[in-house]
Amino acid sequence: MTAMFEDEKGRAAGWFKSLRDEIVAAFEGLEDAHTKGPLSDMAPGRFDVSETTRASEDGTDAGGGLMSVMRGGRVFEKVGVNISTVYGTLGARAQTAMAARGVPGMQSDPRFWASGISLVAHMQNPHAPAVHMNTRMFWTPGAWWFGGGSDLNPCIEYDEDTAHFHTTQKTHLDPHGADIYPELKKWADEYFYIPHRNRARGVGGIFMDDRNTGDWEADFALTQDIGRAFLPSFVPLVETRIRQDWNEADKDAQLVHRGLYAEYNLVYDRGTKFGLETGHDANAVLMSLPPMAKWV
Questions:
Q1: Catalytic: 132?
Q2: What CA–CA distance (Å, rounded) separates 84 from 46?
Q3: What is the SS3 assignment for 131?
Q4: Coil, strand or helix at 32
Q5: Are 202 and 257 within 8 A, CB to CB?
Q6: Are the C-beta atoms of 235 and 241 separated by less than 8 Å?
Q7: 3-class SS shares of the chain: helix, strand, coil, % to 5
């Protein structure tokens, strides 16, 4: 399995990189286009790009990636678009976690390879929704799978925005089977639920994990279409909302909602836990946290 998956690994990592480049260009384009409305007199934001590394216990090369973060833009208060390709040997805690998920061979051969893109955007205008997206491929000598999705997190909800986001996701997923979108939507509703608050962190989206139907090409194609759905589902919402005026109460509602977002990511998010436990750059792992938040 190790040799036969080298090509597939390269294709997956290449796809995540190309999606990252497309999103970064689109987001900087939004910054340039925002010339009327709140904060339009500011300089357009740009991404700061830095390399990230994964720390290995024996000091050998364990991979890394690119962390691209924009702060204080016209449209985005903070947005990160990260990619990484990491590999090596899983530590004891990560092995236990993987074995609990049903990954075979963790005790005998805990080597792994993982690549993906992760994005979180926190907006300047409280009327514009925050958003999260990630897609990834994970490989061990005993298994491989894909995961990811995207979900919308508005602090001020608009029914038409929610409808557009979900309709666009469905349109991109329907070619893979009529049952795929309902399945992934249900998964997102359950995954992004915050038990201690008895509520979801946003208005949902799509999510999958451990996707391995036995057909790598089909699963990769689905993963690509999850990525392709992101910009057309999100960018029109931003273009509509960034020109709206806001007041102090709107901003306060945004900060409180960000507190909810931070709670979820620090307490429940599987990707955050995995990234920290496997030694990846902590700043990249915690990039999802908002620049400012509030608790009542």
A1: yes
A2: 20
A3: strand
A4: helix
A5: no
A6: no
A7: 45, 25, 30
- Between the CA of residue 36 and those of 25, 27, 41, 140, 163, what are the distances in Å? 20, 17, 8, 50, 26
Cβ neighbours of residue 32 closer than 8 Å, sequence gap 6 or more: 44
pLDDT at 56 over 90: no
**Cα 270–Cα 266–Cα 284 angle in degrees, nearest 5:** 75
CA distance 13 to 6: 11
Q: In DSSP terms, which residues pair with 152 in a beta bridge?
A: 131, 204
Two structure tokens written together for 13: 């990592």
Q: What is the β-pairing status of strands 111-123 and 143-153?
A: unpaired
User: CB within 8 A of 217, min separation 6: which ones?
Assistant: none
Query: How many angstroms separate the Cα of 39 from the Cα of each of 42, 262, 283?
Result: 6, 25, 28
Q: How far is CA 232 from CA 118, 165, 167, in A?
A: 17, 8, 10
Per-residue model confidence as pLDDT tens digits over 137-181: 999 888 899 999 999 999 999 999 999 999 999 999 999 999 999
Residue located via tokens 């949902």: 204
Q: What is the pTM of this model?
A: 0.91
Higher pLDDT, 190 or 286: 190
Structure tokens belonging to residue 19: 């999606």
Helix (H, G, I), strand (E, B) or coil at 282: helix
CA atoms within 13 A on the CB side of 256: 10
Rounded distance, CA 232 to CA 165, Å? Answer: 8
| Alpha carbons 187 and 38: distance in angstroms, whole number | 36
CA-based end-to-end distance of the chain: 52
* SS3 call for 187: helix
- Residue 42 CB neighbour total at 10 angstroms: 14
**Which of the following is catalytic: 122, 132, 164, 172?**
132
List the one residue out of 114, 98, 159, 120 whose CA is nearest residue 9: 114
